[in-house]
Amino acid sequence: MKISYNRKDDILIYEVGEGKIDYAEEMGPIIVHFDKEGKPLLLEILDASEFITQTTKFSMKTIEGERIEIAA
């Protein structure tokens, strides 16, 4: 896996496979590029700074049994 970041456009790119990209699907802030067989090859996370901030909030664990509410 190869990871790169485009600071100018705030895009995080994960290369998760090798091959020729055939098509892409947008899933919220993520664009997934697939080969002809439907195998994901590349993930682009748009507005990566915001995405990572939100993802970090979701991954918070409860502290001393308290329930943590996340506003979407």
UniProtKB/TrEMBL annotation:
Xref: InterPro entries: DUF2283
Pfam families (UniProt xref): DUF2283 (PF10049)
UniProt protein name: DUF2283 domain-containing protein
Annotated organism of origin: Candidatus Ethanoperedens thermophilum
